Protein: NRAMP family divalent metal transporter
Organism: Pontibacter ruber
Amino acid sequence: MKQTRNWSVLLGAAFLMATSAVGPGFLTQTTVFTQSLKASFGFVILASIILDIGAQLNVWRVIAVSEKRAQDIANAILPGLGLFIAILIVLGGLAFNIGNVGGAGLGFNVLLGISAEAGAILAASISIAIFLVREAGKVMDRFAQVMGLLMILLIVFVAITSSPPVGEAVLRTFVPEQIDIIAIVTLVGGTVGGYITFAGGHRLLDAGIKGRDALPEVTTSAVSGITVASIIRIFLFLAALGVISKGLALDESNPPASVFQLAAGTIGYKLFGVVMLSAAITSVVGSAYTSVSFIKSFNRGIAKYENWVIIAFIVISTIIFVTIGRPVRLLILAGALNGLILPITLGTILIAAHKKKIIGDYRHPLWLTIFGILVVLVMAWMGGYTLLKQLPELF
């Protein structure tokens, strides 16, 4: 019975991480980069998957071995660092959750014809209902699994319908005609950046899967999460490639929607509504849950009333979207800061991986440390570049 429960939690954590990554931005990024790089985007996906696994395994393993959340690990290294990271995560999570709520509203708009604002309120109500249930963790796990599988099935259907040049896609994945470093970094940041890296790791900790004995399970769950997100990315890439290779032009105002519509007509457009809704509403849940998990260790009241704080987080995101839309300046700043969150948090985790007072006599694999350092350096450079470039636009 315990083994069955563990598998349910492990899959739940994997799908929570994956569906947190697959939001409205994920769908648009994948389509736009496929449009510009065509079959060579396969190489970008392959490179990002490798970097994603390096980042994810480092974070999840150290959280499991130390039996501490990321902010508590950071405070153990340098007092106050955990609070700083928590503030970054919560601000970034709130800003992007406004976009997630908006994406869910758009999904309902496509499906039911209601306004995006009314759709956002409906999506928020569904998300809130999850955290009103007594065993919210189990419901969240199952919700993420069902929505994730639904997205995979629908995107695979559209990919098959668009008849992509699979042979060329496979060839260019390993022998690309062009390499776009910015695209690689964007995908890494979008898949394991900000709060997303910690969504599954914190979920496993809350479910009691921790310690050295749990490392095989933690590793399986982490790799599963990246695999699910990557499967969705690959088939969305193939769907877009199939449309683009036929010389069809995508609608610049909504590239992913036009891929579905051009591949499968009116039915395809409705399927896009389902995929957008599934992607956005699971990201709303994942963002709210993980953001609050970063502040609950600082205050007993937050820990005691965690579900209500999560609900408040969702309500605030929805009110901001419905009343003032997506605040451009806030999103620009949050996007730039989010690029810096991964190198700061992953760098902290790598230091913790070699501190006995945090991980005891556990020996962190050298290859994981090297992988982690590579991701930290690349993301720090790109995050700094993005922040410096976008700051003038804010003032």
Q: What stands out?
A: DSSP finds 17 helices and no strands in the chain.
